[in-house]
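Researcher: Please generate the 3D structure of the following complex. Treat every line as part of one assembly.
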Amino acid sequence: MAPSTPCASSSQETITPLPSALPSDETEPRLGELLVAEGIISEETLQYALDVQQRTGARLGQILLARGFITHKQLFCALAKLWGLPFVDLTQRSPEPDAIRAFDPYTFIEYHFLPLSIQNGVVEVATSERPNPQTIAQIKNILGDVDIRFFVTSDWDIDRAVLTNFREVILDTATYGLYYRDPDESAYTVLTPIQFFSAIIAILILITVFFFWPIPTLTFLNLIINIGFLGSIVFKFIVALAGAKYETAEPVTKEEVDALDEESLPVYTILVPVYQEANIVDKLMENLLTLDYPPEKLEILLLLEENDTETIQAARQANPPDTVSFVIIPDSPPKTKPKACNVGLFLASGEYLVIFDAEDRPEPDQLKKAIVAFRKGDESLACVQAALNYFNAYENFLTKMFTLEYSYWFDYMLPGLDRLQLPIPLGGTSNHFRTNILRQLGGWDPFNVTEDADLGIRAATNGYTVGIINATTYEEANNELYNWIRQRSRWVKGYMQTTLVHLRHPVRLIKKSGWRTSMGFLFLVGGTPLTFLSSLLLWFVFLFWIVFRTKLFDFLFPTGILYVSMINFLIGNGLMIYLNMLAVVKRRYYRLLPYALLNPIYWILHAIAAYKALWQLITRPSYWEKTTHGISQVSEQTPT
Amino acid sequence: MASLRFRNRLPRRSYLPQELTYVLPLLFALPLAYVSWSAYRALFLSDVHARLVAEALIFRQHGRFQSVHFIFPSLPLFITTLTPDPLMLSFYASLAGGVTFWMIWRHLHRTNCSLLLKITLLFAFATTLPIVFLFTQSITDAIALMLFTLAWRAFLRFFIQHITWAGFASGLLLGLAFFFNLNAVLWGIMFGFSVFGVVHFSRQVPQNQERGASYAMAMIIAFPAVYIFLSWCYVSWLSYGHPLQFLDAAIIPAHGYLSSHNDAVYTFPDALRITLDDFFRQSLTLSTFILLVLSSTIWLAVPLAAILGIALFRGFGLVVYTEAMAIGTFAVLALMALPIILKKHWRAFLLSTAIIQIALAPFLPIRTAEINEWRHVLTSGVAQQNDFFDQLAASRMANAPASRILADNRSAYRLIARAGTSRPFLLPGDATYTEAMISPHLFVDYILVAIRPSPLDNLSRLYATQPPTDFVLSSYWPGWRLYRRVGVPPILPDELLINPPE
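Model: Done. Output below.
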């Protein structure tokens, strides 16, 4: 945060009678004139800002802040003068516990005030907004009929003071909020007692049956695996076909984006969780500044972990504009991205909210496309997901395969799911929300390591829809094997957690969401880890057989199963390779096409990651395997 | 550039009511179904349908799931297994024909031709005898040609409108077509190669990416058919120990050199000659290609590539590219590419050539003996003598007790298909077949011997001239002898004692 210096008038802390602090008449000097008179900005700057104001409808102070003409301190000191109120620096003066205890901390964020003290029926209140009847009503509603003495302070200071003084409450809400709301919606418990006993009974039955009829049991299991595989292949093929058909249809057109009136654009909150990424903070700032959105309507919350001093230091050194707020996330377990995001959600004031990762490079018009999509969609549209792709696609084998996979996933699968009205598991970043619906949904689950996918499914099961937009965010593809395995194992573990969470009440799931959504969820989220886990077994059997030509496994493949298995092996693999080939055409990554043939190797890596995920699900279910970013040798340029 | 010139004309929409979209294919299929029914009544049974029905009956009734493996072509066999009846196969083929006619009609409907001309053009195509034969008597070719038509239409959309999805659909359709007909591999490769021209001439791709784009799109289009072909080679290697053995083991003869069937194979010059003959025989196809080439020389590549491809295919001994299929391919290639805006004199030219084709259709010389037989049966309305006796014998044999007639289905498939059951037959693949061949009196009451057996039919060769011990000649009719065990009553009527054995 910018260092604060006392305002000229703040030292006196004059108490101004309430009526004069309320919205004033025309004779009062205006903010711009005051700033010019005090020599903080020039006439030209004021004129420029007024022009922007006419175009965007934003507040003048916000415009000057966002465009770097003034600092927070200067703005709020000027506002204090303008409103005839004293300025108070909350870094110097903390609120008294008695004054704030009775309030819900979210009230302070929503109404931009903070009681400082209460004594003899007089309450001193710091505010970053001109005192208004709503604020007064809120205070009197809690504290009774008290006299109120207002002080002016910056919005940053209020946020920071709330975070400091309600640290435990906010942490608790960010961590356990979803669990308190409905324990069955949270991955805090891996298996509910019913799930646990069901699993135990299933295993016991399996062992017993295996003991008495080993060959039929194994054959039956093989049948189940193969039918599951076949179902998964057919499902993915149908979804990708639907997505491919979508190719020519743009959810949001350029004309629709151009037709947007900037004045009508709402405040947009951008959450950027950053952890141990000091090396890319400066790039992050550059990337966020390229967004085509009025900066005065952006609220960028950089979510920094309290103990990550290196990144905090780097962020400060990057000297971001005043639209960027640093939110220091209190250090406590679980140290996960969703927990940080929940804190960010608590502070968010935008009508819409998006998450970007530190290394993300969103296409400039992405926010506007999201706005258009929300306006075109009905009220149940909770979220729109932008496509993700990689700027270092050609770096090495791993990044090439990753790019193929992402192109297929975001360019064909997600549009296909959207078209078929199936639940969409959100990607890690670039998911845009209606903030109020996100709060209704309970935010992210800090115990789920793919909190994004879980949220997408939760939205679908609660009757909300998730859409897609034709905008891309370029990220850094993992280019190092162990790092990739760590990341992938987290994703697979998260899918396992999500499946277990949403299958706690299967009947309720079907009743609430319908067969279509439930089956889509099962195939997509539940089926993915299972196919990875079983594929390694099948590949092993196949390779063993091909090398030794043994008849050892013949009993597993009676004719019917052999047919299904061969169809999976030949047609299924071929289709999946083909869909990956198709993905490169849309993005014109032509040189990647032959690599689609190497997908079986990549799938073996998936299978290895899946076993790691399974092990971690048992041993460390909520452990967040941090992916190291900023290790690519390729500069941030799109491959095309 | 043809592609660019046509592009602006394509957005014009079809004005067909939506309901017709579903009804028209059925309506178009009706005349074909009637032809199928007429041929069936006249006891005509095509070789393709006979082989499929016999195989399906054995598959169902002898439990030969194990021995079938991934037999080629698999999907026609699968369809036949559901309804092992030659008439049903003919109806399915008719339906495929209806869809194909409808696709062509849809395209013609978008042109500025008069209704009379559109009807005449479609009629000219639909009354070409080999095409009618294909759409009534060869389910494999019928569905393959239907898929080819859909794939070609998708490819043209890719070519003219540059819709990647259409290229993808085209590739997938060709991949699917492989399950019906080996020709799909040829089409896949040809479509794939033509992408280089498409990308180059369309100028939609920046020049520095042209090569990459061409390779990528070529691979997208050719991959499914080629991949599935290679997969089948792999399965063939697993099942038979040789990657191309599936062509020999195919239900429908596929490869003349590998095949044990006595199918015609050609040298390349001969193959080229007969392919050119297939091409030049249809005046409408010829005139449409002339029109296309005059609008843009790039279209010259289409007939040239098709002629060369088919000739090469045939030259390699791949006998699946039948006369009817070649004629159908050329016609579809031409008609589906017909420009949407046609000048008046071109319309007149097309009308005249279509009328000529219709007028000459009954006199069109046909190379394939089976199509000539079929034509004769249809025009005379009288069953051929062989068919009559075969049907009579088969219907009587169908009533025999299970596994009491020793036969080899590689020769006797037509009789099994006509019988509508394989239960009375003891066939190769059955556990006791080999023993029964050596000591038939211990296992069976009758032995069916072909006069001109399949090369693999050892049974017919073994007892070609003499019945085994304890057996006597019971019946004989063109192409067949039936031996009866002494003491067992004859199962065939006396009228089958014709053409005494040599």
